[in-house]
Amino acid sequence: MAEKPLYVLLEGPDDERFFDRIITPIFEAQGYETKVWKYACEKKLRTIKLIRIFRKAGIPYIFVRDLDRTRYARRRVQETLKSYEHAMEARMVVVVIAEIESWYLAGLGKDEAIRLGLSHTPDRTDRVTKEAFNALIPKGISRIGFMQGVLDSFDISLAKRRNRSFRYFMNWFIEDRRVDEADAGRDLP
Amino acid sequence: MPSPQYPSLRCRMKISKLSIRNFKSFSETSVVFGPFTVIIGPNAAGKSNFVDVFTFLSDCAHEGFANAVSLQGGGEYIRNLRAPPGETTRISVSLDATADPAKVRFFRDGSRVIEAAALSGTYTITLSSDGCTISEEVITASCTYTLAGRDGQVSSLGEGEITLVRSADGTVGCTVTPAGLAPEPECTPLVPTRLAPDESILESPAIYPTFSPLVSRLGTFFRRIGHYDLDPRLAKRASEIPGMAELEHDGSNLALVLRTILADPEKRHRAWSLIRDLLPFIEEIRVDTIAKRSLIATVKERYTSGTAIPSFLLSDGTINLTALVVILYFEEKPVVIIEESERNIHPHLIAKLVSMMQDVASSLGRQVIVTTHHPEVVKYGGMESLLLLRRDRAGYSVISRASERAELEVFLENMGIDELYVQNLL
User: Fold this and answer.
1) Nearest to B4 among A16, A42, A142 (CB)
2) Which of B274, B363, B414 lies at the smallest CB-CB distance from A141?
């Protein structure tokens, strides 16, 4: 079966690392070839034009965005739509709560955390920001090496329990296969 | 997975500022350095000449001044070809040693032991007008002084400076401020030796025994600057088993260096994780011995159903990325300079590569300096890291920092810095 393209719009390399190791293999198993567009260093207009092309051509896409300082995910989705001139559909926007680092940490078990030199990990990671994550990394350890260490033993079931935005993503896009529906051009509820 | 252990740097100084006069294509310029620097500019703007400053200093400490001059092609090619006759060439490097101060102890008033901790310093070398001998060398260390008591207690004695000056006649003198903290007996060399006209104080730190730890520290720092210009054709070849443990400038002993890394299970795992981050299709890297004389790296890819491919059949990009991971994460260098690191690498991978450089600079405390022609490096390196080189009307190389050029702001509202770079509008 020929692989269908799925475009994932991510902020930068940290998000790309997470998707490459954890999410892409799952989409591959569902018959998609994932292609990544990193939008943070691109001019907004280029990203807007790209999404319009996806929609015109009926190519499935997912737009992943951090919650950042916004308080509610729904508000962040609206902000994103406005900021990108309503190029994308709200249902294709995933808000990572709070930042991609919270998804990394969500799948890290206690034993693995100790092995990586962490004295503690939060029970829930919805409030973990980039700064909080960086503060957890033992001094003199490469951040990327640490992230790879986390991904080596990443537990998806655990991550779904510890981060609600990750659970939402997995349920909506992976288990409910909403990308297939978008691919087929059907309207979603 | 074992906990990752990164090599601890033997000296954790950083270059904070560089000033040069009449060096190669430069007339007079100064640059302030951060942890990560991307040097860009058109062809023949002076990028390699700029990087040569560090190579020259490293060679001075490693091979001696005379050889360092020779390795640059001789005195006439070190000094700017348009410099007026009689004008000297000068290089001045400011260093920040706050993270790991250089310490010296000496006696004062007979039995009082004073410890000077150098938190920052400057090394300046002035070459004679023919570029072949040294007119002056000055080492200035800004110190905090403490009095070390017999019971192990210390008390602060304030701040000051230690200055070592080597004159054109080869004599070395020293000044300590405040004067009341100068070593006793007098601050003079034990042996009244003179340095040869083409001999740097970095080659003979013991000429001033009391302060030799400061000079040694400086020499070690310069010696350990890593300057790389990778040649994938050489890096692909088999390495002779007897060879340098550190990666050569061109990567030609990559197999030998990889063997050492792969022999350690923790390093092996870490190297594989980092290489896989860039090249996810790689499943295993191994180093095999050929006829008990040479080593060759082999790679198993996802696509080759378990067959190991020898390095000479690998793509240039695979070899370059492997060598870059070794340079960034496994070479024990306080400053890493990489020329055109993006060579042979697909643009989509550049963001990850740049993020690794930034990671090494911020997490591991190494200074990373890269030269590039690639717009993706410019884009992901970010404005703050960009140093722009160009030639002025007179042909001298000039440097500016992109983030300090206010006139760019209006362009950047609608265009990316990479687009401005590609159109040569920077």
Assistant:
1) A142
2) B363
Is residue A69 located within the same domain as residue A24? yes
Q: B1–A141: do the CB atoms touch at under 8 Å?
A: no
How distant, in Å, are the alpha carbons of A140, A172, B218, B261, B273 from that of B7? Answer: 9, 44, 20, 12, 17
Number of folded domains in chain A? 2
- The verdict on residue A189 lying in a domain is no
Phi first, then psi: give them for residue A33, nearest 5 degrees: -100, 110
Q: Which of B356, B365, B379 has its CB closest to that of A41?
A: B379
Residue of A nearest to B279 (CA): A20
Q: What pLDDT does B294 receive?
A: 87
A39 in the same domain as A11: yes
The set of residues, in sequence order, having a beta carbon less than 8 Å from that of B316 and lying 6+ positions away, is B232, B233, B236, B343, B344
Q: Are residues A14 and A32 in the same domain?
A: yes
Would you say residue A143 lies in a domain? yes
Asked if A130 is an interface residue toward chain B (Cβ–Cβ < 8 A), one would say no
pLDDT at B133 exceeding the cut of 60: yes
Examine the domain organization and report whether A26 and A117 are in the same domain: no
What is the extent of the structural domain holding A140? 101-160
Q: Is the pLDDT higher at B245 or at B72?
A: B72
Which of A115, A137, A145 shows the shortest C-beta gap to B270? A145
Give yes or no for A44 touching B (CB within 8 A): no
Among candidates A142, A149, A152 on the partner chain, residue whose Cβ is nearest the Cβ of B6: A142
Same domain for A83 and A55: yes
Distance (Å) from the C-alpha of residue B360 to the closest C-alpha of chain A?
7
Q: How confident is the model at residue B148 (pLDDT cuts 50, 70, 90)?
A: confident
ipTM: 0.86
Question: Do A37 and B347 meet the contact criterion of CB atoms below 8 Å apart?
Answer: no
Backbone angles phi, psi at B405, to 5 degrees: -100, 95
pLDDT band for position B186 (50/70/90)? low
Q: Say what the pLDDT of residue A187 is.
A: 46
Q: Quote the tokens at residue B393.
A: 């009307």
B365 touches chain A (CB under 8 A): yes
Residue range B362-404, pLDDT digits in tens = 999 999 999 999 999 999 998 899 999 999 999 999 999 988 8
Query: Is A47 found in the same domain as A15?
Result: yes
Whether A188 is in a domain gets the answer no
Residues in B closer than 8 angstroms to A136, CB to CB, are: none
Contact B277 A12 (CB under 8 A): no
C-beta pairs of B169-178 under 8 Å, 24+ apart in sequence: B169/B194, B170/B194, B170/B195, B170/B196, B170/B197, B170/B199, B171/B195, B172/B201, B172/B207, B172/B208, B174/B208, B174/B210, B174/B211
Indicate if the pLDDT at residue A2 is higher than 60.
Answer: no
Mean pLDDT score, B273-291 = 89
Asked if B321 contacts B278 with a C-beta cutoff of 8 angstroms, the reply is yes
**Chain A partners of B415 at a C-beta cutoff of 8 Å?**
43
Residues 6+ apart with CB under 8 A from B180: none
Residues A10 and A76 in one domain: yes
Domain limits, chain B? 13-223
Put simply, whether B374 touches A (Cβ < 8 Å) is no
Per residue in A56-77, pLDDT (tens digit) is 999 999 999 998 878 888 889 9
Min Cα separation B224/chain A (Å): 19
A93 and A178 co-located in one domain: yes
Distance from CA of B298 to the nearest CA of A (A): 23
